[in-house]
Structures are given as C-alpha cells and as structure tokens.
C-alpha cells in the first residue's frame, strides 16, 4: 500500500512540475526585455527595457530605472553596455535624450 501511495505522489508531483515549466515558458510570464537592441532606440524599445508603458509618469520611469540598474550595475557584475542602454531608455522616456548634448537647437548663434 505504501508503495502505491508513493508512486501516486510522484506521478502528481511530476505532472505539476511539467505544467509549471510550460506555464513559465509561456510568453505572458516574461516581464523584461530580452535583448536584441535596435540601432537607434525609440520610445517602445525604451519602455520594453524598463518594463513599463511608453506613457508612464516620471516617477514610474525613475522607479523602474533604479530597480533595473540595481540588478545590472557594472559595479555589481553587470555589463557596461546594458547599463548604458538602461540609462538611455530612462533619458528617452523622461524626455531629455537630447538635453545638453551639443546640438545646435537653442543656440543664439544659429
């Protein structure tokens, strides 16, 4: 009797594990951008990188940026390139991607 109970428990556990793996592999489980960066970042890609909506408020952008940078900061073993992309995404969504970067817009001499 004990052997039959153990076999039934193992079968149920195996079935549950397989279902969990299928659920985890489904596209709805993935919450973060999986890479493959575009040549020039747009608002959609920036939002995917930070895991937020394109229309997110500044507070939400800052919160998402901080959370992702903690996990990917170069000082804690993260990639310099990925950290740069995360910072670029924040700047783009905050609306100051061009701010103070040497463009001719706003120059009194142009």
Task: Please provide a written account of the structure.
By secondary structure, the protein is mainly alpha-helical. It has 2 domains: 30 residues; 67 residues, DnaJ domain (Helix Hairpins, Orthogonal Bundle). The protein is 56% helix and 0% strand. The chain contains 4 helices and no strands. Helix 2 crosses helix 4 and helix 3 runs antiparallel to helix 4. The protein starts with a helix and ends in a 16-residue tail after the last helix.
State the total count of DSSP E strands: 0
CATH architecture of the largest domain: Orthogonal Bundle
Please state roughly what percent of the residues sit in beta strands, choosing from under 5%, 5-15%, 15-25%, 25-35%, 35-45% or over 45%. under 5%
Shape: elongated
Annotated CATH homologous superfamily of the largest domain: DnaJ domain
Q: What are the secondary-structure elements, in order, as H or E?
A: HHHH
CATH class placement of the largest domain: Mainly Alpha
Q: What is the total number of structural domains? A: 2
Number of distinct helices: 4
Mean pLDDT level: 80
The chain-level structural class is mainly alpha
The span between the termini is 90 Å
CATH topology of the largest domain, by name, is: Helix Hairpins
Uncertain runs are 97-110
What composes the largest sheet? none
Our Rg estimate from Cα atoms comes to 22 Å
Approximately how much helix is present in the residues? 55-70%
């Amino acid at each position: 009797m004990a052997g039959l109970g153990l076999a039934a428990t193992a079968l149920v556990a195996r079935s549950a594990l397989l279902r969990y793996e299928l659920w985890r592999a489904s596209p709805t489980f993935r919450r973060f951008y999986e890479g493959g960066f575009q040549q020039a970042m747009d608002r959609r890609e920036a939002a995917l990188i930070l895991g937020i909506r394109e229309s997110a408020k500044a507070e939400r952008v800052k919160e998402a940026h901080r959370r992702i940078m903690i996990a990917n900061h170069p000082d804690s073993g993260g990639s310099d390139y990925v950290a740069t992309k995360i910072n670029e995404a924040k700047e783009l969504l905050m609306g100051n991607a061009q701010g103070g970067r040497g463009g001719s817009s706003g120059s009194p001499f142009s």
